[in-house]
Amino acid sequence: MSIRFTINGVEREFAGDGDMPLLWYLRDHARLTGTKYGCGAGLCGACTVLVDGAARRSCVLTVSAVAGSAIRTIEGLGASGLHAVQKAWIEEDVAQCGYCQAGQIMAATALLERKPDPAPEDIDAITNYCRCGTYARIRKAIARAAREMKK
Amino acid sequence: MSAPVPAVSRRAFLQSSLTASGGLLLTPAFGPVALAQDAAAPPNPLGVYLRIERDNRVVIGARGAEIGQGVKTSLPMIIADELDAAWSDVTVEQLPLGIDFSGTTPQWKYGPQGAGGSTNIPDAWADLRQVGAQARSLMRRAAAARWGIVPDAVTTRGGHALHPDGRRLSYGELAADAAALALPPDPVPVKQRAEYRIIGRPQRVVDAADIVTGRARYGIDVQEPGAFTAVMVRCPTFDGEIASYDDAAARAVPGVRAVVVVPGPKPGEPLAANLATGIAVVADDTWSALKGRDALKVEWTRGPWASESSTALDAQCAELLSRTGQVVHDAGDFTAARAAAARVVSARYRVPFVSHAPLEPENCFVHVQADRARVIGPLQQPAGAQRAVNLVTGIPRPAITVEMTRSGGGFGRKLTNDFVAEAALISRATGLPIRLQWTRSDDLQHDFYRPFGHHELVAALDAAGSVTGWTHRLASASKYYRRANVKPEDLWTPELYPDDFPARLVPNYRLEWHAVASGIPRGSWRAPAHTANAFVVQSFLDEVALASGQDPLALRLAMLGDDREFDYAQHGGPKFRTGRLRTVLERVASAIGWGRRPPPGRGIGLAAHFTFGGYAAHAIEVEVSPRGEVAFRRVVCAIDCGQPVNPLGIEAQMQGGTIDGLSTALNLEITIEGGRVQQSNFDGYPLATMAQMPRDVEVIIVDSAEAPSGCGEMGIPTAAPALLNAIHAACGVRIRGLPVRDQLRAALARAT
């Protein structure tokens, strides 16, 4: 039996191994490579996507576990022009290598959708790794995005 | 008007031509063959340095491997400024590896392309300014011809040539005329500092829009038609071999196409290609390959290092330091200084193995065919990738093309091309185009780790508190492990840099080294030995100051003394200026308010160090709770990397280096048991998260007219010692062995 879900608003159907992590489905099958592999154990957050609005680590989430869900990836975030979070990331020049940033942006988006005015402690709750150490600029970008999204 | 012309080979190094759309193309020129080409011949699309289109777009080829250090932005800025282009007109395209093999020795087509030692900016300063300046000279001559005036009367600004009467022509309008002109036979003058309009001004990462939308291409994203995904299992013990294996279940996994043995180096052989013996599973997609790998049954031999452990290595170091080692530097007479000293201070420190752990694990696309090969990957040393493929396939280097994607971090890991060699071996064995993917476990278990070592420092002081003698004795597992052509007597050279502070500042100065026997592979970890030695030396300086009743800042300034220039023979030389180190130290001390008395439980620490041509310092204020929890109150760093090229990028590198240094010092260590690495994912190797790191890292960039150094590695070495000095100031506990982990909690619990 095939598994159905939506990715960035598009209906998808998958008839393969339901144990496949969503990450590898996104990357190898849906060819949405913006979502990155970092650890395969849900520890680093490079693979963060939104599943029904919540930030989830797609490397430890099987395809069968997201049956019926609405999945949003970095490719869908700015589908109709850059999202405020993406703009803020550019404005604050957050990226160094940039590899973790899609996951960071998805985690920040989930936070801002839940908490439009996050305190520093709320931002602390984002545990995505940035190996380049862009944390200070991530904080600034989240604050900027929060201001923009309130306008 | 103009600054001295930089040293550029008199051999013509550029050629100009007309693009199909009527623009100007500047490409590297090589010898008479290249120069004899028809100027209107179709340009090699991969050979672009600089292209000016009729619509004024300026396309600049980025030669450096972009690993997050920002060279894809900063190097083109240098060309654009000398060209006097408008930065908003500039787009940047990554160049592939360019090596010209037509002469007797291979030559860079575009200049050096590796990312190591923070050399991209200083290398570019020597040649890329000339590229922009030559293009600008063509524009001025083309405009002068149109207007019937002398070229010297034409000025330029923002992508336009300007007539003294106010008329202007855009570079796009002049491009076709310029393409018909001969390039200047000699280097042309470059700008003076006051004329910079792009250099020294903050510019954002050129790929930012692609990065935030997920479009930026990393090695892991390479999707070549017909490519298969491979994953490998490697022998977990150093230099072990396959005893037996059964791949029947693996081959039965749907999607698995092939299982191949990948032989590794024999014990003692140089680690020039791949690192370990293993078995590769080749499949239609990553998940199938991973499932196939799980289904493999492999028995390994334990190899010659099976009894190696971190505990045994600690014991080995202690034993070595009880004896006299190889004296590698000996100025003055330390023994006499010690005998005459009013006070002697000594301490031992421990620096652990650490892993690079770039967030993008190693991966590479390689397609080996009968007479050629193609490589696309996240590379730090693309020329090395070409050599590695040549080594394992025998395909001549000119027939191996190498493209660099963005790299999800490097930190030195991707300087070694073992993963490229593996992909080439798998492709050759299967005849298939292969995208090899490492897992995080592969990455942490099979790295070229930062060397481990025990350090003993001894300082002799006279009655006035001046340091008269200094010895640094190190027992370490040299980074030069199984490197071809390194003599045993030279194994110390990547471990101790004799011209580092306090060389020449202390009259009796001695360095001594012991080789630690270990089978764990070692390599270059961002700012290699500087991370170990700055931690040790800058921690010890505080110990010396406090033991002799001196202020740690005052002691450092007294030792540095007046502004003087010394020879510096190691990488980052040829000179070291005491005054520049002094300045960064004074700047951070002033910014953080050194000298004030912080509230109870808080402390401030300082450190300063010269790394690869750049001068950096940190001042850190922490609060240590009675239970030993460390909270950052303020983190300030200063950098003098000469003429700042991209201040926004410099700030990023210093912030990132600081976080790297702090995260590593607090939490990270690779340990060994039974001849293998114990850590296999981030649960055992926990990089710091946002909550654990300072909320801000303030960066002071010293304005300077000196030729620029890089800045990718300068932010790390002083972060750890400033932190540990701050912790000591806050709670009186001196941490001498990294990582900090729960040592502080334990020490404070003992104290109460």
Give a structural overview.
The complex is a heterodimer of chains A (151) and B (752). Chain A is built from six helices and five strands, in the order ββαβββααααα. With 151 residues, chain A is an alpha+beta fold. In chain A, α3 packs across α6. The N and C termini of chain A lie far apart (46 Å). Chain B is of the alpha+beta class and 752 residues long. In chain B, β30 and β31 form a beta hairpin. The N terminus of chain B is likely disordered. At the A-B interface, α1, α2, α3, α4 and α5 of A face α5, α7 and α16 of B.
Question: In terms of topology, how is this protein built?
Answer:
The complex is a heterodimer of chains A (151) and B (752).
Chain A: E1 3-7, E2 10-14, H1 22-29, E3 48-51, E4 54-57, E5 70-72, H2 74-77, H3 84-91, H4 101-114, H5 120-124, H6 135-150
Parallel strand pairs in A: 1-5
Antiparallel strand pairs in A: 1-2, 3-4, 3-5
Helix pairs in contact in A: 3-6
Chain B: E1 14-18, E2 24-28, H1 31-35, E3 50-52, E4 58-62, H2 71-83, E5 90-94, E6 99-100, E7 107-108, H3 120-147, E8 155-157, E9 160-162, E10 168-170, H4 171-179, H5 208-213, E11 228-234, E12 242-246, H6 248-251, E13 256-262, E14 278-283, H7 286-295, E15 297-300, H8 310-321, E16 326-331, H9 334-340, E17 343-351, E18 363-368, E19 373-377, H10 382-393, E20 400-404, H11 418-430, E21 434-437, H12 440-445, E22 453-461, E23 467-476, E24 508-515, H13 528-547, H14 552-560, E25 565-567, E26 575-577, H15 578-592, E27 602-611, E28 614-624, E29 630-640, H16 647-667, E30 672-673, E31 676-677, E32 698-701, H17 719-731, H18 743-751
Parallel strand pairs in B: 4-5, 11-21, 19-20, 23-24, 29-32
Antiparallel strand pairs in B: 1-2, 2-3, 3-4, 6-7, 8-9, 9-10, 11-14, 12-15, 13-14, 16-24, 17-22, 18-19, 18-21, 22-23, 25-26, 27-28, 28-29, 30-31
Helix pairs in contact in B: 2-3, 3-4, 10-11, 13-17, 14-15
